[in-house]
């Protein structure tokens, strides 16, 4: 146990890796493979929402002040003709089917209808592409080669993890289903309604002991977020960092580093939209906000700057992978899923 807090734990690999791996820690392997060209066409919030129906309302002033501004009512919000709105899931990953069946007890003949009903409510909260394409059904945390070690840290060492930008908390449920104590898991999102919908999706409001609350990572006055400073062993960032340009991403990662325990082995891990060739400037996206796709080299550069600012050292492992929802016709050619683990040394 003591060694785990003194030395960074090993990155245990899964037995099988994706056969469509497109990148590694060496940017020279992938930088010139593809050209980067277009491919076509309230102040009152609910928090912290724990597991009971007696959740109290608190004021944080963060829900409406995120990096992605709310859409105007009657404009894009209700536009279901956009390329990233699918009327039904094209297929549901077997792992997610098992999670909704075994963990949430959703009957198999009702599963698709259940998922669509939740998605329709979520679309009215904010029409992210991951909502429109049902990509929230594609669990991501379990895809990391570090996942076996992560589970060991959570189950055996009772460490704490914070899922920042958790949406419905789908990866939280995967961890719990795989044996992680739910009381040691925290989740936050800009929109409290997504986390409330997570209880509906997974039918576990009375049983899940995880703590959820709305937050804006850029709001330095958020007392809820400040309360976690130095408390987390692991921070998970799923489909989150691509919403920020390079300079802002550095600021966000500096803020994230403050949430971690100041010791070797503290870990940041996640996935985001990436690219074979990284973007030089942010790209406005139709759903609102921006997209900034890192490649292997630029993502490592982010953590070099984080280290310089904070006086810390980090080991970065990352990979670019072809995956469902990454490389759609309406996206920029060369778009890939960027998975990463950043370990404090």
Structural summary, described in words:
This protein is α/β, with parallel strands linked by helices. The protein is built from 10 helices and 11 strands. It has a 7-stranded mixed sheet. Strands 1-2 form a two-stranded antiparallel ribbon. A two-stranded antiparallel sheet has the order 8-9. β6, α9 and β7 (267-275) form a beta-alpha-beta unit. α3 (111-125) runs antiparallel to α7 (192-202) and α9 (246-259) crosses α10. The longest helix is centred in the middle third of the chain and has 15 residues, at 111-125. The radius of gyration is 19 Å and the shape is globular. The two termini are 17 Å apart. 42% of the residues are buried. The model is unreliable at 1-76 (pLDDT under 50).
Give the helix tally: 10
What is the approximate shape? globular
In terms of per-residue confidence, which ranges show pLDDT below 50 for 5 or more consecutive residues? 1-76
Order of helices and strands: HEEHHHHEHEHEHEHEEEHEE
The major β-sheet equals: 7 strands, mixed
Distance between the termini: 17 Å
* Backbone structural class: alpha/beta
Q: How would you describe the oligomerization state of the chains in this entry?
A: single chain
Beta strands, count: 11
Which short descriptors sum up this protein?
28% helix; 7-stranded mixed sheet; globular; 345 residues
Concise overview:
Helices cover 28% and strands 16% of the residues. The protein contains ten helices and eleven strands.
Topology:
Elements: H1 2-6, E1 44-46, E2 57-59, H2 94-103, H3 111-125, H4 129-132, H5 147-155, E3 161-164, H6 170-177, E4 185-189, H7 192-202, E5 211-214, H8 223-226, E6 234-238, H9 246-259, E7 267-275, E8 283-284, E9 290-291, H10 296-310, E10 314-321, E11 335-344
Parallel strand pairs: 3-4, 3-6, 4-5, 6-7
Antiparallel strand pairs: 1-2, 7-11, 8-9, 10-11
Helix pairs in contact: 3-7, 9-10
């Amino acid at each position: 146990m003591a060694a785990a807090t003194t030395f960074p734990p090993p990155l245990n690999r899964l037995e099988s890796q994706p056969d469509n791996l497109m990148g590694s820690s060496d940017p020279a392997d992938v930088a010139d493979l593809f050209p980067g060209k277009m491919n076509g066409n309230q102040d009152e919030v609910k928090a912290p929402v724990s597991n009971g129906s007696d959740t109290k309302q608190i004021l944080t002033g963060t829900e409406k002040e995120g990096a992605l501004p709310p859409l105007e009512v009657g404009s894009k919000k209700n536009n279901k003709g956009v390329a990233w709105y699918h009327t039904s899931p094209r297929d549901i990953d077997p792992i997610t089917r098992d999670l909704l069946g075994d963990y949430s007890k959703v009957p198999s003949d009702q599963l698709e209808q259940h998922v669509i009903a939740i998605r329709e409510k979520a679309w009215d909260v904010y029409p992210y592409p991951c909502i429109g394409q049902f990509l929230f059904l594609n669990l991501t945390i379990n895809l990391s080669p570090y996942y076996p070690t992560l589970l060991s840290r959570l189950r055996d060492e009772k460490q704490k993890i914070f899922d920042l930008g958790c949406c419905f908390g789908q990866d939280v449920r995967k961890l719990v289903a795989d044996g992680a104590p739910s009381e040691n898991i925290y989740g936050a999102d800009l929109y409290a309604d997504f986390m409330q919908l997570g209880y509906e999706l997974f039918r576990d409001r009375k049983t899940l002991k995880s703590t959820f609350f709305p937050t804006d990572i850029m709001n330095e006055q958020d007392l809820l977020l400040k309360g976690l400073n130095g408390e987390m062993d692991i921070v998970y960032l799923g489909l989150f960092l691509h919403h920020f340009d390079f300079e802002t991403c550095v600021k966000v990662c500096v803020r994230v580093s403050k949430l971690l325990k100041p010791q070797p082995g503290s870990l940041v891990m996640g996935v985001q939209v990436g690219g074979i060739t990284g973007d030089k400037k942010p790209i406005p996206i139709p759903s609102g906000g921006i997209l900034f796709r890192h490649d292997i080299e630029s993502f490592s550069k982010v953590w070099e700057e984080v280290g310089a600012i904070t006086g810390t050292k980090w080991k970065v492992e990352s990979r670019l992978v072809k995956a469902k929802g990454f490389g759609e016709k309406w996206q920029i050619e060369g778009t890939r899923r960027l998975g990463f683990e950043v370990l404090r040394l």
